[in-house]
């Protein structure tokens, strides 16, 4: 009996050692990158199993970067369902007769994450076909469905015009971005902006530059700056880099929506006499038309495949719809920071959140409630916006793996997996391991911030087994850690 227990203890020690070690090739890549194991969290476990194959630092809270979108999109699938869609409403406040509205047109948003210019054009065309031609009042923009604090797009990295820094808005339109296309033409340069914005001009002062440059940084030699109703481009354009394009946010949401509405409305033969005003639907207004978004199953594909931050933030705010109206009384006050709201203590009663509008606090409560009902206990979890574009969001690698384990057993698991980038094929993982045997055999969400490099997802090994792999790096040299992550993926795929 004594020999039996000795052997049992030895086997347990060996199993524990195996679960706590990284393959030598992975450790070598980390060492070459100057990244210590203390800055790494790894969990590898077979789908449907409980004991991890590898577990290194997996219980420590880490910044997950964009892999946090897995939590948001999985929760949304379960709480809202794959067929869920967002609405945007057009209301008339005044008499509509013979195509003339003697009053205001009101656009009310409910947080559609992907209301593109193409969809907006079709919807406004429908308004015309319904008999609306001339608006003799104002265009009122109702953004009240989201209850949000003041947003500073420069706060994260002092680069406010980047598309990833666009803040959420109940009336988000075309991601609030302007696409600039740079078209070298012989010795000259043409710049085209899309979509058309009424009253906004493009002031192209760029000078063609024929010197050789590193085209990975093609836009470092010039600046794009809003100046009133103009967008001014100044500096040198590297002609050797050929045609390029960039998406920038150059104006506030309300100015953008108003300018785009006027441009399309004019194109469709309509007129608008009044101003653009932020307001709400009044008691005398009548519903005129409703636009419906793409279904949630399509939305999460864009969020995860292309790591769209503003879409993820819109979706995170929408999670609050899963709470009954009575839950408003359980929300924390507005002055409580988001990270403080994620705790084991019950939230304090709210003083102002009794309108049924969606807020960060409401979404955090919805997430807490969903995790508890799903028996997922993540005490270290810190949420700020659900997109991972954050310095404060935290989750452990072990709990990220547990989330993916839970998702793999969910009836909608196929929807979530299909939304993830395919290694070496598409999305944010299209350039990784393209020539490897692992290409096409893994669905991964990636994440990158300054000092953060993360992956989380599923690997199908050559033996036919499915593995959950989470690899977080939080270190100043994190960007150098991609080779270590790719080496682990290949190692798992060969099993």
Question: Could you explain the architecture of this structure?
Answer:
With 495 residues, the chain is of the alpha/beta class. The protein folds into three domains: 267 residues, Beta-lactamase (3-Layer(aba) Sandwich); 105 residues, D-tyrosyl-trna(Tyr) Deacylase, Chain: A, CATH 3.50.80.20; 71 residues, no CATH class. It is 27% helix and 24% strand. A hairpin with a 2-residue loop joins strand 3 and strand 4. Helix 2 runs antiparallel to helix 12, helix 3 packs antiparallel against helix 6 and helix 4 crosses helix 5. The radius of gyration is 25 Å and the shape is globular. The chain starts with a helix and ends with a helix. The N terminus is likely disordered.
- CA-to-CA gap between the ends? 35 Å
Give the strand content. 15-25%
The total tally of domains equals 3
The helix/strand class is alpha/beta
State the shape.
globular
If you compute it from the alpha carbons, what radius of gyration comes out, rounded to the nearest whole angstrom? 25 Å
Low-confidence runs: 1-19, 333-355
Query: What is the helix/strand order?
Result: HHEEHEEHEEEEEEEEHEEEHHHHHHEEEH
- CATH-defined topology of the largest domain: Beta-lactamase
Mean pLDDT across residues: 91
Give descriptors for this structure.
495 residues, alpha/beta, Beta-lactamase, D-tyrosyl-trna(Tyr) Deacylase, Chain: A, 3 domains, five-stranded antiparallel sheet, 27% helix
